[in-house]
Amino acid sequence: MLSPLWRRQALPAPLDADDWADLLGQARSSLLGARLALWLQAHGGLEAVPERPRSYLRLALDIAQRHHGLARQEMLRMRAALRRIDGPVLVLKGGAYLATGLPAAAGRTLSDIDLLVPRDQLDEAESALLAGGWIAQERDAYNQRYYRQWMHEIPPLTHVQRGTVIDLHHTITAPTSSFAVDGAALIAASRAVDATDPRWRVLQPVDMVLHSAVHLFQEGEFDHGLRDLLDMDWLLQHFETREPDFWPQLLARAAGLRLQVPLHHALHHIERLFGPRVPAGQRAAVVALAPAWPQRTLMACLLERALRPMHPSAAQGGDGLARSLLYLRSHWLRMPMHLLLPHLLRKAWMRHFPDDEGDQPAVRG
Q1: What's the CA gap between 110 and 124, in Å, rounded?
Q2: pLDDT of 327-343, one tens digit each?
Q3: Distance from chain centroid for Cα 131
């Protein structure tokens, strides 16, 4: 029920109480409640919505606005904590959308703030954040090694008083990944958020889109996959009208970073769910991004199910199997088999036999 709103730009009418319950349930499960409220404000008026769903939508808007206020305050605190770091600090994903005022920030809630620094300054940045009150709650030695040796980020840091979470990266994909990306290349092309501090930066527009695509299709976090896909759609619509030669640059950068396949999946499902986006002059180049027919067809089938809201009213047969297969694929993409197999066996062991202190296998993936 959600994606047709952004595709047709019209609310199906009339909606009875059960329809509203399903629509709000799908929005809540996809983290799209506030965006649904904003959409209704722009198309026909939130005031025309029946009282109970209108109350929920107003609450979702309030929560998103509070999230934005808190996130801005936290980013100022992070900026202060990292002021002695010589190198650049990049804000990623939702934090970047918010810091630069992009439309993709509208109605978006943030569960954490993602930062990226040069790999050789990772220890220095971590120490500065520890001094600022953020600590790693991950205590398991294996999980620490998993992050620090094989992943593109260190274990999440949580503030001891405010509970805010930082994911500190040195690149956007695991170094062992099939889509490994050189973090230095991203930093070299990054842009300053504002003129007050040239070290505080965000990815350049085409890298922002590619990061969103590779994150969605490699991390396997499809519980909010529809929200992430809508982020990408809004980034495309915004940048293509403001960045000269945006589409040729996007396609060239995808080839340079070897991210053609994630970009293909993203564009295919954006057009399927939200309508045509690729300019006619670029369509042949976009078609050339596609992997071979068996992989393309299988992934299209799996993603069509996995991107559906995780709500009973949107469920179809095979949804759970599709998400499980994509979850396994995300692991296979991130680690070669000689690392992946022992990792999965250990995760399975820890899930069934947690240690005496009750530690759980907290690593992602």
Answers
A1: 25
A2: 888 888 888 888 888 88
A3: 28
